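Let us practice reading a record.
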Amino acid sequence: MMNKHFVLTTILVLSVHLTAIPFCSSSTTSKRYHFNVEWKNITRLCSRKAILTVNGEYPGPTIAVNEGENVEIKVTNGVSINTTIHWHGIKQLRTGWADGPAYVTQCPIKPGRSYTYKFTVSGQRGTLWWHAHIAWQRATVYGAIIIYPRMPYPFAAPIEAEIPIIFGEWWNLPVEGIEDEMYKYGSGPNSSDAYTINGLPGSLYPCSVQGT
């Protein structure tokens, strides 16, 4: 469990107050998602490497649900290593087996297998995040969870859009190797090579797009 504190990922939501969009009311229906865990080659800081992703997205897809809704997320493991997904901050009321920590509340999802997480978002609203919960996979396997309240937003100005802002870290080396080195010598992990916003380093980092 010692490595759980070393990967920085923070979720914020930016609300743009321009043109109105309807708020989401509560519902007894189920929201369903399908997550495919797969490798994808991406380029950051002038180098290209394969990283673990969900549906080929980095960060992964946003889960948007309404307060009181049931949620079903089928996770298919398309890689050759075990994986799990944790829904960080979701209160698992009588659904502890859907929480996601490997070897704690569930066995990992084996290569080529699927597991469907089922839970109800009850008495919660706001923005949380989901992430892989085995080894250092959370370094790239993560995304936002938005829970819309039962009542309309109490803002005088209407809202045009809500944009999740996810802070994270980037390592040029494979994160699996960094984890191995940490365990080998008993030291802390190597510092990351960049901080990211929605998976992108800022404009001052090498080979970054200006205006990021």
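A brief commentary: The chain is about 5% helix and 40% strand.
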